[in-house]
Amino acid sequence: MDYLARDSALRGDPAGLLEGAHTVVAVALSYRHSDGPDVPADQLLGGPRGRIARYARGTDYHMVLKTKLGRLASEVSAALGRPILARACVDTAPVLEREAALASGLGFIAKNTMLIAPGLGSYVVLGELLTDVECAPDAPLAPRCGQCHACLDACPTGAFIDAYTLDARRCISYLTIELTGPIPRELRPLVGDRVFGCDICQEVCPFNAATGEPGAPELAPRPGVSRPSLRRLMGLGAAQFRKWQHQTAMRRVHRAQLLRNVAVALGNVGDADDLPTLVKALTEPQPLVREHVIWALGAISRRHPHTRSAIDAILSAHDDPDHAVRAELLLASRL
User: Fold this and answer.
1) 277, 294 in Cβ contact below 8 A?
2) Contact indicator for 315, 205 with CB cutoff of 8 Å
3) 88: which residues sit within 8 A by CB, 6+ positions away?
4) How many helices (H) and strands (E) does the chain have?
5) On the chain, which terminus has fewer CB atoms closer than 10 Å, C or N?
6) What are phi and psi of 215, to 5 degrees?
């Protein structure tokens, strides 16, 4: 993620983002919700389902948090009886959000490198309000993970080098969101049915096990988003895709990335009934999609040997102009 190297001076000193700023107010907003309702289109299509990370199932948290931070600034200004300087930052500004949250006493850093807010767990999104208002700092919290290493053991791709150390290049969230090119072949079977992000290291965390108050209503899952039909996602045209990701955090990926992820998921959990969907996807204009569709066909033929002859016929009939796709086709044909 080369963009993290940009604006490194600002990341080290948030005062550069707002002249006259004295304080960083860190906030956390819970997105703990159960899966949302299904939609008729998904019910009719049937077949395997994908998984969307919890934080991306509702309205885009950037929009929600910025609105709330703006309201906070207005209320502080009213309480002080004077205008204040303030800038709301949510994820996109060069602010070390996790470190700000740690320094503010919002929570402690877990072994999976995520912030755990006592009483809320790690299902929280973070934001900051830079302001010229002088505030006394809070004390940071000490780690509370103890001897637990459930998150480190649960990661299917082995992304954790050690406690508190993550190799992002192996993280499913990185692979399905940040990575714009091909997913490494050796990691594709480990992605499972996840098409946007991953919650595995959070799902096994004891701090997330206790039932508590539901998260912010604005971040509640939209219908059909939590466990969408993979066949439906693979069939989304450009306009349908824009509508599907409208005002959600899934705006982070472009259509070819999503279809790449869906193809990998179908390769991992699909069967013979999903072959027509994949064959149609071989006509997609983006080579990135076709490459992963061919991998998916090979993966299904390995898991379901009775499909091998049909898939061999599909692969032998496909002629592709792209070098990477042809290379994947050759590999799949040798299985």
Assistant:
1) no
2) no
3) 65, 66, 69, 70, 73, 127, 128, 129
4) 15, 9
5) N
6) -70, -175
Answer yes or no: is pLDDT of 143 > 90.
Answer: yes
Instruction: Just list the catalytic residues.
Output: 91
The secondary structure of 85-139 as a DSSP string is -EEEE-SSSS--HHHHHHHTTS-EE-TTS-EEBTTTBT-EEEEEEEESS--PPPP
Residues in a beta bridge with 196: 52
- Contact (CB, 8 A) for 121 and 32: yes
pLDDT of residue 41 exceeding 80, the answer is: no
Q: What is the DSSP letter of 142?
A: P
Please give the backbone phi and psi of residue 326, each rounded to the nearest 5 degrees, phi first: -65, -40
What's the pLDDT tens digit per position in 245-283? 999 999 999 999 999 999 999 999 999 999 999 999 999
Read off the pLDDT band of 211 (50, 70, 90). low
Q: Supply 237's token pair.
A: 């045209």
